[in-house]
Amino acid sequence: MTFKRFVNVIEIVTLVVALGFVVALFANEPGGGAGSTAKSGPGYDVYLANCARCHGQDGQGGVGPKLAGVVTVDFPDAREEIAVVRDGRASMPSFKNDLSATQIQDVVAYTRTQLK
Amino acid sequence: MTASTAGPVTRASVPVKLLAIVLAGAAVSIALGVYGHVHDPTGEKPYTLFFSDTINLKVWFATAALFLAAVQVLLALRLYDKIHVPRTAPPWLGDAHRLTGIVTFGLTLPVAYQCLWALGFQSTDGRVLLHSLLGSFFFGAFTVKVLAVRTHGLPNWLLPVVGGIVFTTLVLIWTTSSVWFWREFGFPSF
């Protein structure tokens, strides 16, 4: 196999892989799957809009640490968790300009009671 | 007679070709940006391969992509006779340039997928917003580059300019992600 032909093969393989990634972006779209949970409420909405991208939809962690079943251990007092959400900590951004005090309380309550 | 009719058609078609290529690239960038915006980020780590964490994989893959992109720029400079090392350009230089570009692109795919799938288009602060914008722009610029390579009759300056834009974008993406990670969390292990 000549070098040019080898490069052609690698190019085709890479193109197929790229198409595979594009398909995967749409094929695995969350929200309607059998495993999705039927949660609702203001805390849930705030969580999905602001927290799920880092901590995972079910709080199992991702870029950010796991929350499910952990936050009540790490923050026995809910006010400590509220302070972290409000003011940020390390790589976690502050949400005091994005969320109202009520929304922060709602989402903290959600993480402490609904994420198991 | 034939030459007088063929000339104007060729000249007129260059702007059309350019426009079509730029529109295709813009469509890719916009599609990625829109997807990242409307998609609910999962926060998942879909793969780690042989790395200890997905973020480590992303930092190393992005760094490897940047290194190969720099190699590709050097190969391009030799192809355009802007540097003279080696003194005689080997016949496989063009294919080596292509291969480094393909592998660079391949390395960016799992990084971009995890960014789009798990994080989406974010604007929590300036760095994150810039990274989201550049990430969407990169694949559009890359599309323009590939189409420009495959399209005949385009101006000679186009490929170096688009190649430079793609490389610069990759440098900025890497700076707003991998460099940021090193500064915040230290040099990542495998």
Q: Would you write up a description of this structure?
A:
The complex is a heterodimer of chains A (116) and B (190). With 116 residues, chain A is mainly alpha-helical. Helix content of chain A is 56%, strand content 0%. Chain A is elongated, with a radius of gyration of 20 Å. The model of chain A is unreliable at 32-38 (pLDDT under 50). Helix content of chain B is 75%, strand content 0%. Chain B is an all-alpha fold and 190 residues long. In chain B, helix 1 (2-38) runs antiparallel to helix 4, helix 2 packs antiparallel against helix 3 and helix 4 (126-150) packs antiparallel against helix 5 (158-185). At the A-B interface, helix 1 and helix 3 of A face helix 3 of B.
Brief overview, please?
The complex is a heterodimer of chains A (about 120) and B (about 190). In chain A, about 55% of the residues lie in helices and about 0% in strands.
- End-to-end span of chain B in angstroms? 67 Å
Residue windows where pLDDT falls under 50 for at least 5 positions of chain B: 1-7
In what range is the share of β-strand residues of chain B?
under 5%
Query: What proportion of the residues of chain A form beta strands (DSSP E)?
Result: under 5%
The stretches of 5 or more residues of chain A where confidence is low (pLDDT under 50) are 32-38
SSE order of chain B in H/E notation?
Answer: HHHHH
Q: What is the average per-residue confidence, as pLDDT of chain B, rounded to a whole number?
A: 89
Structural class, judged by helices and strands of chain A? mainly alpha
Q: Compute the gyration radius of chain A: what is it?
A: 20 Å
Oligomer: heterodimer
Helix and strand pattern of chain A: HHHHHH
Largest protein-protein interface: A-B, 30 and 32 residues
Tertiary shape of chain A: elongated
Overall helicity of chain A: 55-70%
